[in-house]
């Protein structure tokens, strides 16, 4: 889990710096009408953090096998209107939510990391897997959508 904590902490500091080097147009441009802007992708990462905070907590104490609820990612981004929100608010939200995730992950007892949850269709994964997947998901969006030059 130390690697995950280190990775999340890295992006808490580094991602705002990356955005600082981009123009307003780079941040708000939607590559296609149905695709998110880099600003909205950061909002999506906030939504991911919101949903995973609950999962990381509940998987530790709910009866196993805990069934996670999915969420409509496009609707979350649209309803929260990240595209028209002040960018610094979204950055602050990203940093605060991920600091909370770091706090949660650091305090998970080792024996809880093997707790199971159902990802659907009776497919089970461990809490440890979900936490690692959280960072991989974040880095996928950062490397493949945010840091690429349009």
Compose a concise summary of this entry.
The chain is mainly alpha-helical and 150 residues long. It is built from 6 helices and 3 strands.
Radius of gyration: 16 Å
> At CATH's second level, what is the architecture?
Up-down Bundle
| Tally of strands | 3
CATH superfamily: dinb family like domain
Instruction: Name the poorly predicted regions.
Output: none
Describe the secondary-structure layout.
Blueprint: H1 2-20, H2 24-28, H3 38-61, E1 66-67, H4 73-80, H5 87-106, E2 116-118, E3 124-126, H6 127-146
Please characterize this protein's 3D structure:
The protein has 150 residues and is mainly α. It has a single domain (2-25, 37-146), classed as Four Helix Bundle (Hemerythrin (Met), subunit A) (Up-down Bundle), CATH 1.20.120. It is 64% helix and 5% strand. It is built from six helices and three strands, in the order αααβααββα. A three-stranded mixed sheet has the order 1-2-3. Strand 2 and strand 3 (124-126) form a beta hairpin. The chain is globular and about 45 Å long. The model has no long low-confidence stretch (mean pLDDT 96).
